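Researcher: Sit down with what I've pasted below and flag anything odd:
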Amino acid sequence: MIREPKDEVELRPVSGGPDASDSAWSTSLRSLADRMLALESDCREVRARASALRSAFGHEPRSAPHSGAIGDVAAWRHVAANQFYRAATMRDVLRTLRDVLVNFLGVDRFTAFALDEPMRVLFPVATASDGSPRGVVVEIDRHPPLRAMAAVERAWRAGDPDYAMGPELMMLPLVSGARLLGAVRLERFLAPKRCFAESDAALLALVSEYAGIGLECTWTRSNAQQRPLRRETVERLVGA
């Protein structure tokens, strides 16, 4: 959910207080009125932007990428990051991954893989259609691009290799800190898109990191034992 900012105007008295000249007070009031009008205009823009983003980020299929009127990359990144953070299960993370790739990056065919850490293999878990995963198990150590991807031990950044093993667009790692959790093979753009734009690099980096964090958090949560909060344990954890 996008929270609309609360506008706060700091009131500063004119030097001399209420006994200052009428001219000084008039100037101060006009300045304050101008600032309030500007803030109201900004609020209207933020509300319109929030409404557009909420509509665009639903789970309904879209006919083309970036079809919304809002081109603010920072706003798109905020919405995408918020959705990854709110994911409660791995399925939620994968659903958000699909939405971001299709709606924000214009990728209409992809395969998401999770990592079997002991075996060092990637196995398919989701596709663009949310149907049965396509593809086969991929052994990381048998493919030089994947070995290089795993060795980096961080999320993808602009300027990094595409780690492609064949005709796909790229193989995007999903990483939390230094831990590789999986990867997503980007396979085809949604027409008429034909290549990544410069602004797409920031969203690719966000997906690489935040989807990885989402996978790790939901994995940890689903495998953690439910224990009651205890005062001594909490105080030790917070250093009280």
Observations:
- Confidence is low (pLDDT under 50) at residues 1-15, 56-71.
- The chain has two domains: 23-52, 73-222.
- The chain has six helices and five strands.
- The helical segments are 22-56, 73-86, 90-104, 144-152, 200-223, 231-238.
